[in-house]
Amino acid sequence: MRNPYLPIVAPIVEVREETFDTKTFTIAAPLNFEPGQFVELSVFGYGEAPISISGGDETGIQLTIRAVGGVTRKIHNMRPGEYVGVRGPFGKGWPVEKAKGKNLLIVAGGIGLAPLKPVIEYVIKHRGEFGFVTLLYGARKPSLMLYKDKFEEWGKYMEVLLTVDEPEPGWDGHVGVVTTLCDKIRHVADTITMMCGPPIMMKYTSMVLVELGFPPSEMYLSLERNMKCGIGICGHCAVGGVYVCRDGPVFSLNKAVRFLEKPHEVQGVLD
Fold it and tell me: Strand 159-164 relative to strand 133-139: parallel, antiparallel, unpaired?
């Protein structure tokens, strides 16, 4: 068993620009991972940060990274051929096996699409094992959407509904927050929901979905904020008696409600 404290040293093999502050890095660190898991990414001399795995195969993994701190800003300046460290994978991922044979609703906001991309790719690869699949994805502006070149291909396997808060020239799609797409959902019964995005988005979308009849026990959220060590040692992500990195980052809504902003506002819906 590999020492979880020691990173694999691996080269960056490809860098793809997604938005002005977000890039997808392909790193030659072949890992057996489940959709929803994350790694600890080390930039030597700068530190490490937990990053969700946004894709990969037998040759390596993909990490979609927004430049928001010292480590992530440094890697944004790195190029193919330079080396980073990778620990993991860590955490409990999305309940993909449980979703087989059922309908699937995927809800993402902003960079929250990155941890859900492996689910989308798994569904496409095993399309016959799932019922009706719907993707709701919202971003602040069209230019801030991730994986824009993949929407058309994904639409061949599932219903893809997109929205933005602020339209830009050339955008003729839906305008509004993600919750404004919920009335377009065609299948509620026998549906598993997987959701990732800003806490405020997940809170209000959860409330709307519960009101539409989606059972909280069949709704799953990824709560990645405040993770640090990845293995439940540092205590940085300890909330409500659990470690988000070790016991999550994916939780059912019944469990996740305690981590959402102003949880009492959601609690009333669940009672």
Answer: parallel
Neighbours of 120 (CB within 10 A): 25
**For the chain, first and last CA: distance in Å?**
44
The CATH number of the structural domain formed by 96-270 is 3.40.50.80
Q: To which CATH superfamily is domain 8-90 assigned?
A: Translation factors (2.40.30.10)
Q: Could you tell me the pTM of the whole model?
A: 0.92
Quote the percentage of the chain above a pLDDT of 90.
77
The answer to whether 131 and 104 have CB atoms below 8 angstroms apart is yes
List, in sequence order, the alpha helices (H) in the chain: 70-76, 96-99, 117-125, 151-154, 199-212, 244-247, 253-256, 263-270
Asked if residue 191 lies in contact with residue 105, where contact means CB atoms within 8 angstroms, the answer is: yes
Helix, strand, coil percentages for the chain (3-state, nearest 5): 30, 35, 35
Distance CA 221, CA 209 (A): 13
Alpha helix positions (H), 46-135: 70-76, 96-99, 117-125
Rounded to the nearest angstrom, the gap between the alpha carbon of residue 44 and the centroid of all alpha carbons in its chain is: 25
- Amino acid identity of 183? D
Please confirm whether the linkage preceding 35 is cis (ω < 30° from 0): no
What would the pLDDT profile of 154-168 be if each residue is shown by its tens digit? 999 999 999 999 999
